[in-house]
Amino acid sequence: MPAPQPKILLIVDDREFVQNEVRSIVGARRFGDIIYKRCALIEHLRSALPEWARTRLFHIRTADELAKLRNAIEQSSEDTAGFVIAGRAGFTEPERLKQLIERLPYAEDDFTDRFYKPLVVFMRNAHRLMDDWSAFESAPLHFRETAWHGFQRLQSTIPLDLANIRDFLTFTSCSTATRHFNAVEVDAYYYTKSSRDKRKMLAEYSFYALVPESMRPWLIQPFDYRDDGSRASYKMMRYYLADASLQWVHGAFDSDSFRAFVERLLFFVRERPRKACSKARSSEVAHGLFVAKLEERAKQFLSMAEGQRINTLVSSSKQDLDLNRQLARYHALYQRYADHFAFDHMVVGHGDPCFSNILYDQQRYLLKLIDPKGAVTEDELWTHPLYDLCKISHSVLGDYDFVNNGLYSVGFTENNQLELRVSHSNHASLQPIFLECMNTLGYSRKIIRLGEASLFLSMLPLHIDHPNKVMAFLLKAHSILNEVERD
Hints:
The protein folds into two domains: 164 residues, Spore Coat Polysaccharide Biosynthesis Protein SpsA, Chain A; 243 residues, Aminoglycoside 3'-phosphotransferase, Chain: A, domain 2, CATH 3.90.1200. Helix content is 43%, strand content 17%.
């Protein structure tokens, strides 16, 4: 017979909406709806619970859910315990939270994590909530101003208060998931990145010292490069800033704040050091970035068993989604517009200024770029003028950050064709701001988007460990190619 479940009600009180500085990063939403490492915070908490606890969880957001909780308490026996977690509580070590929940059936004392405005409250008798239900109904426990006398102090697991901007940035500053071949370690002062790709680590580390002095204020200086034989690593000072990706996918920008952000980012693009070159040389570099690399990555993808499976799946829905067909369309368009990739200069480029690599403070207009493609020699600094813009565009226009954060779905239309659905909010009203600023610099939307299509297709083998994401990239590239052809 199965073991009896502990008599515990787990309550996540998520009625509160984000306010003040945190709201400027994630927009108007409840804390449980904040996206962290590809899913909502409430789902992270749910996944950290023991199996038995998930069936005892009450996620409180509305009056109806509060009424259901009251009914459950009233129907429970006097030996039923209650454990209340504030929606704003951030747990940096989910395993410790799981261990705490596992120990709750054996707890002999009531406890909180702090004596004033606690984020977790354990009551051996859940009916204590009924003693002052009207106060609990009107506001969460962590709003109460009085001290929690008679409650022990929790020592093992102290949550961060995500309503506090410092705690929020501590919690989310490493929210972007790393690729499978990279690793990141973070402490209170340093951000340490390591990888088996030692040359890439050396290139990222060397980039800061090699770039012209005028670019360095936009970058974070790396230090302490190490090569231990199998891996290489370097450190950077930890900046408590949210990346632009987190702000973008949460709809935290309005027209004014987004314009300020785009103007600063494109100022960086406009001010990059240049050196003259022939148009033939520029075309050669463009071909290497936008054609040769794409062909190499496509070949790599189709050599993988999982890549073949995904390609077969998407093409069975619609033949035009087949990677080889998309490559043929891309090549034809690139040939048609090849002259637009011929410039009379090269630039020192960042190489990967997608929004997750841009730290930004809206209130202070502070912008820092991280994780450059890098360079080991001065010659490797120079790149094509359009490449960084295409990377920026695939965040603004291409929904890359939504896909990368899991805010999408791949489903079927009524005609049984695959369709990419993205969870937008106010982004359609902000994208014209980017197009306006880009047009002011003299860049063509059509050409930027064509280069952007190559980026999506080039990323396929790099994200092979997330098949749905790969399908999303194939669908996104297909829609961009349609757009370029229509224009």
